[in-house]
Design the sequence.
């Protein structure tokens, strides 16, 4: 089993810097999801590992061996493409068998292994069809089967669920982690969808404008985003952000927001007298506490059900917008909107970022 | 608007219009076909008539190579000309495919210095009037001993077939998603295997179309062979001149020779048709 190491990879096309100094390490059996907005360089990253594109600087090592200037056919990688990239003139069987044929396996062994993987992916009934005759879901599974059949050391999945329908995407999200565990490959998975990333990843690498902004387990990305952008990318509805400037008061940091003064927990003193952004996840907004000291009155403008949660669109005393979410079973109590409700901010759940650099201001260890 | 919804009169008019256009374009060929079964007397009769007693005399004369005229019997090597045409056109297209298809792939997939300029220069061979090219070339060919040789003619025919194949096939390669080739490489196949087993099969409709067109252009070429070849290497286009004899123009034989010389290209076109209609992408890539 092999590890994959990307060591300070940079790549530019002409004057456009696509990747700068990106480093990722994927252990055998681990799934690292590269997540980021379109144009962040995700696909280029995969192509660099596949060997279709060579980096300008930096090193790529598979199983401890540098693979720079090694052709794609000798890198021990498997790849599933976003557009499937099946061979239109070959049957699904031959498509899947291609990596085995390239290694000169004998016919009986090829048949056995293709049958095995197609049973696992439930496409054994369409092996005789050409790609033209397959549904999108079957194409996607065929392309996945082709990338997996040989059990490659490194598996590259380029947004494989992008072009399939919502139901299948949901099923595959549940199925993939189990499937990937069978093979023990180092998996690099690319997606734009943060939920997909959270569902599949052992660790998530947030890629933005060619830089890895954060590389951490999913929960850490969500609970302690390293930058405003990471906080914004993960979470639906997106995090509430307010420009603030914490001040010192009685030895602690306080912020003025919504016409109130909020005391920050200890350890936030570093933010005092700096221009900051305050982030508040919609689900962390505490609804209720009608009128008691420390709560703020908001006008409820709209209520939207969103899957299992309801989204409240609120307007504060000075017209500030605030999104809050509540369990969907509770949204009945808000009616169809426009009334006054009270909220409270849980100080321990607030995120602080430097406004200039966008970087997280971590609480000092107590 | 759907065609089926238009009224019957409009439909009849449309059919009539199509018939007229079809007749207009196909009539000369039809007339030539009729002529090939007529004697020179029948052909030159005024007014012309659709009714005559068909004869195979013309075909017999051409195939046997003996042309009987009022001024005596002439040797006409028409079947030799036909064979020359087949050899020259086939060889030219084969050579062009051998060099043109890999070149087209290179132009489509790789950006290299002067790439576009080279591709354009190759296309520009088709701009120059052939006569301007061929006269100076005749002198060089004399010196090089390429005059009146298949090799020399096939070489010059590259001016016709190579640019055509290069530009048509290049377009097909460019329309093909490189991801399919990448996928095949990642599967573990060499660059060359990928080219042979993926790129070429996927470009096959384009290659077939280009080869057919190039074949037709080579087949119909007149000027190169007229100047660079003598009797034993001449194709049908030049060979047909032999029917202009001292005792008049042998229209019947000319018609028969045209009919015979159409057959190979027509057969090739019918055969290539199945490759031409093959869809290009075949649903491999989404979008």
Sequence:
């Amino acid at each position: 089993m092999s590890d994959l190491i990307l060591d300070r990879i940079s790549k530019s096309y002409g004057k456009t810097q696509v990747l700068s100094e990106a480093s990722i390490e994927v252990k055998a059996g681990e799934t690292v999801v590269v997540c980021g907005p379109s144009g962040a360089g995700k696909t280029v990253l995969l192509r660099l590992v596949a060997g279709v594109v060579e980096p300008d600087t930096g090193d790529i090592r598979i199983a401890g061996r540098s693979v720079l200037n090694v052709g794609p056919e000798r890198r021990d990688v498997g790849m599933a493409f976003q557009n499937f990239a099946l061979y239109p003139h070959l049957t699904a069987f031959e498509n899947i068998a291609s990596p085995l044929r390239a290694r000169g396996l004998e016919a009986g062994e090829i048949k056995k292994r293709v049958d095995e993987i197609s049973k696992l992916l439930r496409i054994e009934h369409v092996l005789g069809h050409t790609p033209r005759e397959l549904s999108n879901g079957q194409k996607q599974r065929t392309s996945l089967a082709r990338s997996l059949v040989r059990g490659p050391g490194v598996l590259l999945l380029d947004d494989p669920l992008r072009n399939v329908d919502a139901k299948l995407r949901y099923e595959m999200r549940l199925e993939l982690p189990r499937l990937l565990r069978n093979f023990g490959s180092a998996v690099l998975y690319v997606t734009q969808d943060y939920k997909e990333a959270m569902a599949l990843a052992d660790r998530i690498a947030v890629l933005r404008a060619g830089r890895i902004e954060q590389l951490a387990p999913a929960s850490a990305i969500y609970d302690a985003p390293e930058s405003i952008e990471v906080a914004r990318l993960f979470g639906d509805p997106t995090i509430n952000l307010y420009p603030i400037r914490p001040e010192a008061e009685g030895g602690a940091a306080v912020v003025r927001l919504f016409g109130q003064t909020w005391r920050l927990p200890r350890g936030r003193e570093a933010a005092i007298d700096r221009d900051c952004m305050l982030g508040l996840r919609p689900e962390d907004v505490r609804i209720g506490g009608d009128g008691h000291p420390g709560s703020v009155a908001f006008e409820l403008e709209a209520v939207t059900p969103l899957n299992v949660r309801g989204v409240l669109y609120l307007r504060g005393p000075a017209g500030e917008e605030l999104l809050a979410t509540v369990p969907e079973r509770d949204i009945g109590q808000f009616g169809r909107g426009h009334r006054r409700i009270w909220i409270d901010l849980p100080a321990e759940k607030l995120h602080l970022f430097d406004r200039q650099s966008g970087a997280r201001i971590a609480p000092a260890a107590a | 608007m759907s065609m089926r919804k238009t009224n019957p009169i409009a439909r009849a008019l449309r059919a009539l219009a199509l018939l007229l256009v079809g007749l207009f374009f196909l009539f000369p060929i039809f007339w030539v076909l009729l002529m090939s079964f007529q004697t020179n007397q029948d052909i030159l009769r005024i007014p012309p008539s659709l009714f005559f007693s068909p004869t195979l005399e013309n075909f017999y004369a051409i195939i046997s190579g003996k042309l009987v005229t009022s001024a005596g019997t002439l040797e006409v090597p028409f079947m030799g000309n036909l064979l020359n045409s087949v050899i020259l056109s086939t060889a030219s297209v084969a050579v062009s495919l051998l060099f043109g298809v890999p070149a087209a792939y290179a132009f489509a997939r790789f950006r290299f210095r002067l790439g576009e300029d080279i591709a354009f220069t190759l296309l520009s061979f088709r701009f120059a009037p052939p006569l301007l090219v061929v006269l100076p070339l005749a002198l060089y060919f004399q010196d090089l001993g390429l005059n009146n040789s298949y090799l020399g003619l096939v070489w010059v025919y590259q001016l016709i077939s190579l640019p055509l194949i290069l530009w048509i096939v290049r377009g097909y390669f460019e329309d093909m998603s490189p991801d399919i080739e990448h996928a095949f490489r990642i599967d573990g196949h060499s660059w060359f295997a990928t080219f042979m087993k993926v790129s070429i099969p996927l470009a096959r409709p384009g290659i077939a179309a280009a080869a057919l067109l190039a074949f037709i252009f080579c087949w119909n070429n007149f000027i190169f062979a007229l100047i660079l070849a003598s009797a034993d290497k001449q194709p049908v286009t030049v060979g047909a001149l032999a029917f202009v004899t001292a005792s008049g123009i042998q229209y019947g034989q000319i018609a028969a020779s045209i009919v015979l010389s159409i057959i190979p290209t027509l057969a090739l076109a019918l055969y290539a048709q199945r490759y031409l209609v093959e869809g290009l992408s075949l649903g491999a890539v989404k979008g």
